[in-house]
Design a protein that fits this description.
The chain is α/β, with parallel strands linked by helices and 459 residues long. The chain has eleven helices and 21 strands. The longest helix has 25 residues, at 95-119. Bound molecules: flavin-adenine dinucleotide (FAD).
């Protein structure tokens, strides 16, 4: 009998099984705040609102179950990475505000860790920082520029590493240079999001699952099971936003895919190292990201099929077979010690990309409508900062958080199809070609990547 292949989809390897559902919306009801989406954004917002005012009546509506979206599928980098481009935001809003944003994100890493400890959420957290590696000359040049960039934004603790210093942390193949950024922790994503859902419920928030919002209006959210009337309505639907009426072109659902190995035996770990559980990534255009999981596997991800026509999303995280092959090849190339280890699971998910690649936290006092998202793949920490900020905005408080540059930021809509599909596809083919070009030993960033950046509208 042929060996069974990896589990494909079923949301992600972070869930050992589909969680038992919470109740659905029992019919029409009212609340003071209605939040649509039970990922990190929705749940952090509910958490900070309820802690600030325990009497607030808050309802969270979730189409499937808490953690069904990117929050239950991600790479588990709880990092201080800014969800946008700092230089562009500085040109728009001033350097000091962007410095404050970077600082707030670094601090948010510790805030998440503190809350998990205080609330008893076992999210498998290890704060080992991130190891970024370069694997050819062009990547090394980019890595050097990244180090300067981080230092320019006053990110403390950045350490450039030689190939040998990097190998003392993780024994990777073909590393040319590396750097370590201490502002990152490894987490088990689903444990974090499911734990948060339990915490907000304990605080008295009503979380209704299998309750998709069909439309969001001022003061009211409609679902097939009834409506919720509330003076404040917050949208926390990230990569799924395009499915809501009138929002099709607002944020592009970008796909990212992952695989997880079978548990790795101790003798193989001894040849790999990775005792610090650093999160790990490279500086290719089609970069990979990885973690050593809490249960002794390697989970590694990257972009495979980056975008589906007309902003469609996946079916419970299923990926094409070629994605499994591609990510397995990346794993074996970086860590050949894993060649005999099976792949247990493959999945994908969507993250939201605004047209200008800058995330936002917005609340309109006059309508009571708010939203946060567009984290361009850096949302595990940013959602915590967004949740705290939305809570301050809803409560009408002016705080250092409400002064951060992403508050109220607006980006234009994406182009209609087929331009959207052609643009993203062209961009990713160009990045793939640029990586191939660079791997042939070119010393500088491939000009093809510059063209891809132009298509993407990225600085
Ligand atoms: C494969 C992958 C790897 C990633 N890795 C990292 C990483 O390592 N580090 C990092 O910082 N970021 C990473 N990200 C991004 C990060 O996971 C997201 O930015 C973050 O989880 C966003 O949280 P969210 O709550 O805004 O959105 P989501 O977690 O997507 O939650 C949105 C929720 O809204 C629900 N919903 C949607 N539409 C409706 C509706 N109409 N009615 C009711 N509910 C609705 C969905 O079911 C979902 O549960 C990754 C993303 C992916 C896909």
């Amino acid at each position: 009998m042929p060996a069974a292949g990896p589990v494909n989809g079923r949301v992600s390897a972070w869930f050992t099984e589909y969680p038992s559902p919470r109740p659905s919306l029992p019919g029409d009801r009212d609340a003071e705040v209605c939040i649509v989406g039970a990922g990190y954004t929705g749940l952090w917002t509910a958490y900070y609102l309820k802690r600030a005012d325990p009497s607030l009546r808050i309802v969270v509506l979730e189409a499937r179950f808490a953690g069904f979206g990117a929050s239950g599928r991600n790479g588990g980098w709880l990092s201080g990475l800014v969800p946008g481009d700092r230089n562009r935001m500085a040109a728009l809003y001033g350097r000091d505000r962007v410095l404050a944003w970077q600082q707030a994100l670094n601090e948010a890493v510790d805030e998440v860790i503190e809350v998990t400890e205080r609330e008893g959420v076992d999210a498998g957290v290890v704060k080992g920082g991130t190891l970024h590696v370069a694997r050819n000359a062009a990547q090394a040049a980019r890595l050097e520029a990244e180090v300067d960039e981080e230092l320019g934004w006053k990110v403390d603790g950045i350490a450039a590493l030689t190939k040998d210093e990097a190998a003392q942390r993780i024994q990777l193949d073909d590393v040319v240079s590396a750097y370590h950024n201490p502002h990152c922790a490894r987490v088990q994503p689903a444990r974090l999001v499911r734990g948060l859902a339990d915490v907000v419920e304990r605080l008295g928030v009503d979380v209704y699952e299998n309750t998709p919002a069909t439309d969001i209006h001022t003061g009211r959210v409609t679902t097939p099971l009834g409506s919720v009337s509330a003076p404040v309505v917050l949208r926390a639907t990230e990569g799924f936003t395009a499915a809501l009426p009138r929002l099709r072109r607002r944020w592009l659902p970008m796909n990212s895919s992952m695989i997880a190995t079978e548990p790795i035996p101790e003798d193989i770990w001894a040849t790999i190292g990775w005792r610090g559980c650093e999160t790990l990534g490279d500086t290719a255009h089609g970069f990979f990201y990885a973690q050593r999981t809490v249960d002794g596997r390697i989970a590694i991800g990257g972009r495979s099929v980056p975008y589906r026509f007309a902003s469609r999303t996946d079916v419970d995280g299923r990926v094409p077979e070629r994605t499994i092959g591609h990510l397995t090849a990346v794993l074996h190339s970086v860590l050949p010690q894993t060649r005999d280890i099976g792949i247990a699971h493959a999945w994908c998910g969507v993250l939201a990309v605004p047209r200008d690649w800058e995330a936002t936290v917005t609340f309109d006092k006059s309508t009571g409508l708010g939203w946060a998202g567009g984290y361009v793949g850096h949302g595990v920490t940013a959602t915590n900062l967004a949740g705290r900020t939305l809570a301050d905005l809803v409560r009408g408080e002016r705080t250092p958080l409400t002064e951060l540059p992403w508050v109220g930021h607006r980006s234009r809509n994406w182009e209609p199809e087929p331009l959207r599909w052609l643009g993203v596809r062209g961009m990713y083919l160009a990045y793939k070609a640029a990586d191939w070009h660079e791997s042939r030993g070119r010393r500088t960033t491939s000009p093809i990547a510059v063209v891809a950046d132009t298509i993407a509208g990225r600085p």
